[in-house]
Specification:
alpha/beta; Oxidized Rhodanese, domain 1; 5-stranded parallel β-sheet; Rhodanese-like_dom_sf; Rhodanese domain-containing protein; Rhodanese-like_dom
C-alpha cells in the first residue's frame, strides 16, 4: 500500500477543493460536535468517534465516504486505519475545514 496526499499522507484516497465535484460522496465531518454546530457543510453528518465512523463506512461498502476534519491530519490517520481494516470506499479531504466548506459552497 502506498501513502498518498500532498499535505497529510494516508493510505486512503485524497480529495482536494478543485476535485471535489468529480464524484458523489456521503460527507462525514469528524470534528467535535460543538464545532460542527458552529459551522458545517449542510449535507455532512457529524461522527467524531472512530468506532462509530468505522462501523458506518465498513457496513456500507457501496457508498463513497468523504471524511474531513479541521486540517486534514486526523482524517488522514482515520483513512489509513480504515483502509487497513478493508475499506475501499473511504476518501479524505487533504486540507482545512475552511477549504472544503468554501469549495462546497461554490458548487451549490
Amino acid at each position: 500500500m502506498k501513502l498518498q496526499g500532498k499535505f497529510n499522507k494516508s493510505l486512503a484516497n485524497p480529495v482536494y477543493a478543485d476535485t471535489i465535484t468529480q464524484r458523489e460522496f456521503c460527507i462525514i465531518d469528524t470534528r467535535m460536535p460543538e464545532d460542527y454546530q458552529q459551522a458545517h457543510i449542510s449535507e455532512a453528518e457529524n461522527i467524531f468517534d472512530f468506532a462509530t465512523l468505522s462501523q458506518k463506512i465498513l457496513e456500507n461498502p457501496d457508498v463513497d465516504f468523504l471524511i474531513h476534519c479541521y486540517s486534514g491530519h486526523t482524517v488522514s490517520v482515520y483513512g489509513s486505519h480504515l483502509v487497513e481494516m478493508g475499506a475501499k470506499n473511504v476518501f479524505y479531504f487533504d486540507g482545512s475545514f475552511a477549504e472544503i466548506y468554501n469549495a462546497i459552497q461554490k458548487i451549490k
